[in-house]
Amino acid sequence: MFAVVVTFRIKPEYNGAFLPEMLQNAATSLAMESGCHRFDVCTDSARPEEVFLYELYEDRSAFDTHSTSSHFVEFDAKVARMVTSKEVRTYDQVPT
To answer: Cα separation of 54 and 34, whole Å?
Structure first.
């Protein structure tokens, strides 16, 4: 498995608009990408400007496919003006 965690910082005026777009992107990724196994969208009411993602992919190649998919590219362009920062971290599963 290949894990991806993403932290978005959202401009305050877009807090309400960002989440529906993010949730649609997550649902589409799960429905259309066989290599996408999990896509959680998380928030904390104490930090309304922060959105945290936890994603699991079959492997790095599946994540690369996600990153270049038409639905992701469209989502990324649509929310670019809403985001002040985006931090992406990736992790390979440690073999047992």
So the answer is: 17
